[in-house]
Known about the structure:
By secondary structure, the chain is α/β, with parallel strands linked by helices. Helix content is 39%, strand content 15%. It is built from 16 helices and 14 strands. A 6-stranded parallel β-sheet has the order 3-2-1-4-5-6. Strand 13, helix 16 (384-396) and strand 14 form a beta-alpha-beta unit.
Amino acid sequence: MMHSDPPGPVYLTLPRETLAEEWGAVASFPAERFGAVKAGGLSAAAAAEVARALLQAKKPVVITSYLGRNAKAVAALEALATECGIRVHEFMPTSMSISRASPCFGGFDSAKALAGADLCLLLDVDVPWLPKFTQPDAGTRFLHIDVDAVKQDFPMWGFATDLRLQADCGEALPDVLQAVRAQADDAFRARVRERMAGWPRERDERMTALAAAAAQAGSSGALSPAFVCAAINQAIGEQDIVVNEAIRNSPSVLTQILRTQPGTLIGCAGAGLGYSSGGIALGAKLARPQQRVVQVVGDGGFHFSTPTSVYATAQRYKLPILTVVLDNGGWQAVKEAVLRVYPKGEAAGANQFHAQLGGEVRRFDQVAQAFGAHGEHVSEPGELDAALRRCVQAVDNGQAAVLQVKVAAL
């Protein structure tokens, strides 16, 4: 069921013969009779064991991906991280698990998180790092708390864990925090203060680097994705929902569009290019009509996602969403995937990856206009801010909008 833990969409398929069959009396029940299965917290013993590990750790870190689906868990993680001096890193996040303004937020790089860490909490995460590029230290201890800790639907899950606990992090982390406070002494609190003392400087350095990247506008027909995403950040509010399917440009979305509120980031949890972030944006707007919804998508993903259906639906059901298409001329993720597996293969030798859209004319904004949306096309850095303002105004007036921006190819 879609409301049972772990929650999510349910795909139901039946043979057409079954669907076409005439049925007599079939028992039916109201939706509330199909009670959802909910995960709970930890036992007192399990919470105490996790707390002891945190009290003993010299460099504890968290890696998470989808803890932020539960707003209660976001607040619980921030409270625990602040109490224990834990750096929180998100890897390929599908939601915001800790405010980007928190002193405990450490970024999106698992390799940086794991360097020198003696304790790592894996919290609601399917892939904490890519083993081809990142290897944890041999002495790192891993504790895994997850709504699906055994990854029961995965054919293979290849990450070693010293302690695996199935629980709702929104319920479990307050239990751990309570256990920490019961066991903590002045020496522990002093170590936490010392550990956190350098974090503001590190954050300032990170923000300075992000600002420098955003200041590089790019050139005609090849705007910098960081510059574009920083402009989006300035144009929207902290309560607006960002739906991220930028794929290869996701780092710019995550680092430049700063999210501080739970529920304001939705990422790709599965499938591939064109998994329909447009449909997700419509669903988010339907669920939260008072919040602005901004979809950031690559041109490959936009191309694959049947945009005519997206904007026809937006028009019919009055669901104004803003779509920003980062147009780099193709789906670079396809090329990179081939090179990772076959770095010396035929495709690499011929430099033929079938990953380019091709053609001189490619106006996604006009596709949207054909279905009642406002459309803008930007190829010059100086055009961006005004185009964004017009798109945001259109959305606020009840009209969907598409902004196609020509960005640099990766």
